[in-house]
């Protein structure tokens, strides 16, 4: 995936024309203003004319109303249905309306997760909606939406020395909750050291913009069986962190592979040993 400012601005119609049309159809102008980017083409770009139910009954997005740090905004997506072979959430798409790279990521799940919960940290560039859209295995779409007050997250400087950050690039750290029980969903956190440069950060000495360089693909398996995968953009924060679940069925090894936009590949492993 590659992004430019055109990805954000190219889909913006005249707000006033859109507002007039929606007023005539009985839609409040206040809602139109917040959702003008979504209604003006963003929705169609990613989902066409497919029906989307806006509800917190299938997934619920949790985000701060006002972010303390626009470059590191905590996001949690809670699944309201269990992951079973018959019915499960297979994909969650995270969209940040006002970001230059609006598609923060697509995250893939299977019944092996037990729960399709997801935790991560994102950049938010301007006041606006953040949306999580779940697709279930029967092809239905459900959206949870929150309005987040934050600005400047995509152009915020890297939090550490960039050269030091590049030297650590690709190092991974796994962490799991305790206890580890066979047949029960286990929370796993995977953190990847990577500056995740957006291309919008300016070097204060040279006054030049950085080249975009960020994590693009993530795949996690347990003993060869896929348990989590993602395609991500630069809207994820520096040092991307992913919190997800999977159901262990015995002792084994989690294996992660991460690929960035320069086609650098990194791998990490973590031994999982059930307590019972």
Structure at a glance:
This protein has 276 residues and is of the alpha+beta class.
Rounded average pLDDT: 88
Question: How many domains, as an integer?
Answer: 1
CATH superfamily grouping? Immunoglobulins
CATH class assignment: Mainly Beta
Q: How many individual β-strands?
A: 15
Radius of gyration: 19 Å
The SSE order reads HHHEEEEEEEEHEEEEEEE
Strand content: 35-45%
How many helices?
A: 4
Main beta-sheet strand count, sense and barrel state: 9 strands, mixed
Describe this structure in words.
The chain is an alpha+beta fold and 276 residues long. It has a single domain (53-272), classed as Sandwich (Immunoglobulin-like). 15% of the residues lie in helices and 37% in strands. It has helices at residues 5-9, 15-24, 29-47, 162-168, and strands spanning 52-54, 59-62, 73-79, 89-96, 103-108, 118-122, 128-136, 141-148, 172-176, 186-192, 215-222, 225-232, 241-246, 252-260, 265-272. A 9-stranded mixed beta sheet has the order 1-8-7-4-5-12-11-14-15, with no helix packed on it. It has a 3-stranded antiparallel beta sheet with strand order 2-3-6, with no helix packed on it. The protein starts with a helix and ends with a strand. The relative contact order is 0.16.
């Amino acid at each position: 995936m590659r992004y430019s400012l055109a990805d954000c601005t190219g889909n913006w119609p005249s707000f006033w024309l859109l507002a007039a049309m929606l007023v005539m159809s009985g839609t409040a102008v206040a809602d139109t203003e917040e959702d003008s980017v979504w209604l003006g083409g963003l929705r169609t770009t990613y989902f066409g004319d497919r029906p989307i139910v806006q509800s917190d009954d299938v997934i619920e997005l949790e985000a701060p109303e006002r972010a303390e740090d626009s470059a590191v905004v905590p996001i949690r997506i809670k699944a309201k249905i269990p992951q079973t072979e018959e019915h499960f959430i297979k994909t969650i798409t995270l969209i940040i309306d006002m970001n230059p790279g609006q598609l923060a990521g697509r995250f893939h799940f299977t019944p092996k997760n037990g729960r399709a919960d997801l935790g991560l940290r994102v950049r938010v560039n301007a006041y606006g909606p953040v949306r999580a859209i779940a697709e279930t295995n029967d092809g239905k779409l459900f959206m949870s939406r929150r309005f987040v007050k934050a600005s400047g997250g995509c152009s915020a400087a890297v939090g550490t020395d960039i050269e030091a950050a590049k030297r650590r690039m690709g190092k991974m750290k796994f962490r799991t909750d305790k206890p580890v029980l066979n047949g029960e969903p286990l929370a796993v956190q995977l953190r990847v050291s990577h500056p995740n440069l957006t291309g919008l950060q300016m070097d204060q000495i040279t006054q030049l913009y950085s080249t975009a360089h960020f994590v693009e693909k993530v795949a996690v398996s347990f003993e060869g069986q896929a348990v989590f995968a993602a395609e991500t953009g630069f809207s994820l924060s520096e040092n991307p962190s992913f919190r997800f679940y999977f159901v262990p069925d015995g002792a084994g090894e989690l294996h992660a592979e991460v690929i960035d936009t320069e086609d650098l590949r990194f791998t990490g492993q973590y031994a999982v040993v059930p307590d019972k």
